[in-house]
Amino acid sequence: MKLAVFTTGGTIDKIYFDKKSDYEIGDAIIGPLLNSMGVGFDFTVEELMKVDSLDMSEQDRRHIVERVAASSQDRILITHGTDGMIETAKALSIVQGKTIVLTGALQPAAFAHNDAVFNIGGSVAAVQILPSGCYIVMNGRVFTPENVIKNLEKNRFESPGE
């Protein structure tokens, strides 16, 4: 298997300098993380943008859809900000013949206690076994774009009505 990884920014790659300063989106963590874990497959990482998903435009989403559709790989993993992830997943649902998984983090990977590594690991497993389609993998679960919400009160992704 060869996996195409696209990065878009978001909390997973945020860097905070101190409590009084703002953040910036740093270099994508996923490539170095996969290398350090000694994964047994080939992958490429392409940075599409460094955008907080709250600031993501329809033009940004069109660019993501175009790059995914044009990829020669049929297994795609996308790191994405959690606030706009569902909207982007819905936009990507038009891409046929590929397994596309979006993931992110509710805490930056740079934090000592974060969900980034867990979500990336789940996404890597999911992208290898799921049939073609578009999915979101967060909090140890796999969702379709039509059957997921971000629950701000509980700080997690879940199915509607949980």
Would you mind describing this structure in some detail?
There is one protein chain. The chain is an alpha/beta fold and 162 residues long. It has one domain (2-158): L-asparaginase, N-terminal domain (Rossmann fold, 3-Layer(aba) Sandwich), CATH 3.40.50. Helices cover 26% and strands 27% of the residues. It is built from 4 helices and 10 strands; from the N terminus they run E-E-E-H-E-H-E-H-E-H-E-E-E-E. It has helices spanning 30-36, 58-70, 85-92, 116-129, and strands spanning 2-7, 14-16, 23-25, 42-47, 75-79, 99-103, 133-138, 141-143, 149-151, 156-158. The protein has a 6-stranded mixed β-sheet with strand order 4-1-5-6-7-8, with helices on both faces. The model has no long low-confidence stretch (mean pLDDT 90).
> What is the share of helical residues?
25-40%
Number of domains: 1
Order of helices and strands: EEEHEHEHEHEEEE
Radius of gyration: 15 Å
Give the mean pLDDT. 90
Question: Which sheet architecture does the biggest sheet show?
Answer: 6 strands, mixed
CATH class: Alpha Beta
| CA(first)-CA(last) distance | 35 Å
Strand content: 25-35%
The computed structural class is alpha/beta
Fold-level CATH name: Rossmann fold
Number of helices: 4
